[in-house]
C-alpha cells in the first residue's frame, strides 16, 4: 500500500519550498487584509475646514477654538459654527451646521484613504463597509479556488491566485474613487481567499502525523507581517505607496512557486498514480529517505487497482467530490458545521482584537507593534501544543480565555493604555494560538478528497465573522463597550462548545476517503477511487 506519511515523515530539502510559501504567503495576506488599519485609520482626527480666505486669518488652533463646537470634551468632527461678516469683522454664532470639507490631523497619519475619499461623519461607515466587502471577496475566493485546487491541483491554484493578487493589487494603486477602489480590492481579496485554503492544504498534505507542528510557520509569517505593517505606514505615509509595496509582496511567492512540488497525496487521491510515484521518488531523493521500497509499494497499489505501469485510470472510475459531500452524511455534516462555527468565532474575535489594537490610544504604530511583539510567545507555545496537547481541550481553552480577557477590558478607557495593551495582548495570545491549532485541527478532520473544499468552506465561515468584525466599532459607539464585549463572549462560548463536539485528531492518520468519516453513507459510491472503496477491508492506501 502507498504510505505517504512514511515517505514525507523526514523533513528535508523537498519541504523547503512548501515551508517558504506558507511563510511568505502570509505577508500579502496580512498587508492586504489589514491595509485599512493604517491606510484608513478611524483615529485620524479631523474637523471642519476653514474657508479658503480664512487660512491666513486664523491658525488651526484659533479656528478650532472659535468655530468648532466642543462635544463630550472634544472638538466636533462634523459640525461648525455659522458665522457672519459685518464691517470687516467676523462673528461666530451659536448655531451649527454640517461640514462641507475637512482638515485632518497629520500627527500620526498623512495622505490616507479617509482623506482621499472623505470617509468621515455621515460617510465614516464606508471604512467598515470596505473592510467587510474585502472579507466577502476572500469568502468568494475560498469557495472558487478550493474547488480549483481539488479539481486541477494545488500548484495551479497557487499560481493563478498569485498572478491575480499582483495584478489587482497594482491596479488598486491607481483608483481615485471609492467604488473603483473597492472593485479592485475585491479582486485582490478573491486571491487572498485562494492563498488561505490552497497553501494550508499543501502544507498539511506534505507532513506526516507527528510533524504537523510545522504548520505553525503560517503564524510566524503572519506575525512578521504584522511587525512590518505599521512601520510601512509610518515611513510611507501616502496610502498609494503602501499599496504598491503590498502588491509587490506577492513576487517572492511567485519565485517560490517555480520550485513548489505538487501534493503527492492529492496526486494519488485524484488518480494520477504515475505522477504520484514520480513525486514521491523526488521526496525520497531530496530528503535522503531510506528503507522505503517505492517500486514494490506502487506495484502492489497498481495491482489492487488493476493497472499497468504507465496506464491511466479511467476517469469514470474516479469520484469527483463536491461541496455537497461535506454535508451529505450526518457525521460529515456535523463535523463540518462544528468546524465552520469555530472558524467563524475565531476569526471574528481575531480581527476585532486586531482592529482594536490599532485604536487603543497612544501612538498607534507602537501600540500595534507592542501587542504583536508581546503576542509572539504564542508562536512558540503553539509548537508545543500542536505536538503534544490534544486539539479539543486546546481549542476550548483558547475560546474561553479569549472571551474572558475581552470582557476584562470593559473598565479601562483610552487613558488606561497599558492596561488595555496587557489585556488585549493576553486575549490575542490565546486567540492566535487557537487560530494555528484550528488550522491543523480542521485539516486533520477533512478527508483528502475534499480537504481544500473543506478548508475553503471553513475560511468562508471565517470571512463571515471577519465581515462583521469592523462593525464592532459602530456597535460600541451605539450601544456601549458592554454590548460588544458581551457579544464577543457569547461567540467565544459558541466556539468552545463546538470544539468539544469534534473527534480528537492528535497523532491520528489523516482521513483520505469520505468513507473514513461516514462509512455507512459514502462507502458504496464515494471515495478516492471506486475500486479501492470496494476493498475497504484493507488499510487505506494513501
TrEMBL record:
Against PROSITE patterns, the record matches this protein to: MFS
Give the top-rank taxon of the lineage listed in the UniProt record for this protein. Answer: Eukaryota
SUPFAM superfamilies registered for this protein in UniProt: MFS general substrate transporter
| Keyword annotations | Membrane, Transmembrane, Transmembrane helix
From the record, give the transmembrane residue ranges.
125-146, 158-179, 216-237, 337-358, 364-386, 393-412, 478-500
Q: How does it sit in the membrane?
A: Multi-pass membrane protein
Pfam families hit by this protein: Sugar_tr
Q: Where is the Major facilitator superfamily (MFS) profile domain?
A: 18-507
Q: Its GO CC terms?
A: membrane
Localization recorded for this chain is: Membrane
What is the name attached to this protein's record?
A: Organic cation transporter protein
What is the native source organism of this protein?
Galendromus occidentalis (western predatory mite)
